[in-house]
Amino acid sequence: MVTSEELDMTFKKVGNDFGFENVEAEFSAYRGLKVRWCRTINNASFTVSDYLQGAPIEVIEGIARTIFSKIRAEEKTEYPECAKEWLTSDEFRELNQDKYIERNEAIEDMENADDSRLWDAYYKLVDAGIIDGIEGLKLFWSKNESISRAGHSSFLMRVVIMNRRFLRDDVPKEVLDYCLLHEIASINAGFGIDLLERRKEIADIMAGCPGREIAKKWLDQIMMEI
């Protein structure tokens, strides 16, 4: 577990390598995985998601170097392989998934939720061979209906939140299957790949969904995005 003092010292060390004289860094309980910063010419302060507290110190240092490279507008701004490997590991998910779910205000109260319909749709897609199953996946209905977005997913946390509007009797069952497939495909597409490559991979998976034309027509009619 990385302490606040170790985080601060690591960012100070990396910041000095990039010419920053005064650097401060602290953990913050953000809902998502993010790093925020405020800087002047040679000073910088950072608030870092506490989802990174369980990371090895070399991962923290790698992330810090990437961020300072972005601040200095240097060409190489990708996260190092050690950071990518840890962020996409089962260890990261196991350490942070419950915390992410607890903080996410869009998720329906889990004590009252009936997610059987979601899991039925998921296993139908997996059993049909349309999509690969995801270890550690959690499925939820949204707390409120949305008129604009079908669902949300977190690749790193392995969490999918579907629009509870799909529970209405007048919504074709193909709509939930199609929209859930999009979120699962988004997770299966992987982390850090080229945006165009990612979109193509998701589109290829979506093309194999039975009832997709029915679902697309319904979504177009109400102008809802996936």
So, the CATH homologous superfamily of the largest domain?
A: Metalloproteases ("zincins"), catalytic domain
Helix content: 40-55%
Q: What is the beta-strand fraction?
A: 5-15%
What is the element string, with H for helices and E for strands?
Answer: HEEEHHHHEEEHHH
State the name of the first-level CATH class of the largest domain: Alpha Beta
Using the CA coordinates, give the radius of gyration.
20 Å
Oligomer kind: single chain
Query: Which blocks of ≥5 consecutive residues have pLDDT under 50?
Result: none
- The CATH topology of the largest domain corresponds to Zincin-like
Q: Based on CA inertia axes, which overall geometry fits?
A: elongated
Gap between N and C termini: 37 Å
